[in-house]
Amino acid sequence: MAFQIIWSPSARWDLMDLRDYISLDSPEIARRFVSSLFDAVEHLADFPLSGRIVPELRDEQIREVIRRPCRIVYRVNRNNIEIIRIWHSARGIPEIY
Q1: Residues 6+ away with beta carbon under 8 Å from 65
Q2: Confidence band, pLDDT 50/70/90 cuts, at residue 13
Q3: What sign for the dihedral angle of Cα 97, 81, 27, 22?
Q4: Nearest-5° angle of CA 88, CA 73, CA 18?
């Protein structure tokens, strides 16, 4: 059974912010990078526990997938996966909750 993927408002904002920033140098690279992020997220629908537990949080329901240089943080719920945040790993840890 595939899980439904839900994007939080924060994750949507993060995605648009990354796209806009990368587009300043190359719209094509931005498009490809965003596409690779979507590919990583879509994979979670079938393999929700494939990401590692976020080390800083130590909560088994909050996991992440690394798509260098970004961390895609998500929460595994009963029937869905909520993409919580996407951020550049060099920017520190954003507010998750």
Answers
A1: 40, 41, 43, 44, 50, 51, 71, 72, 74
A2: very high
A3: positive
A4: 35
- Does the pLDDT at position 94 exceed 70? no
Instruction: Domain ranges for the chain, please list them.
Output: 4-91
* Token pair recorded at residue 12: 């949507």
Q: Is the pTM of this model over 0.70?
A: yes
Unique residue bearing structure tokens 């995605």: 15
Residue-wise pLDDT for 47-81, tens only, equals 999 999 998 888 899 999 999 889 999 999 988 99
Q: Domain 4-91: which CATH class? A: alpha beta
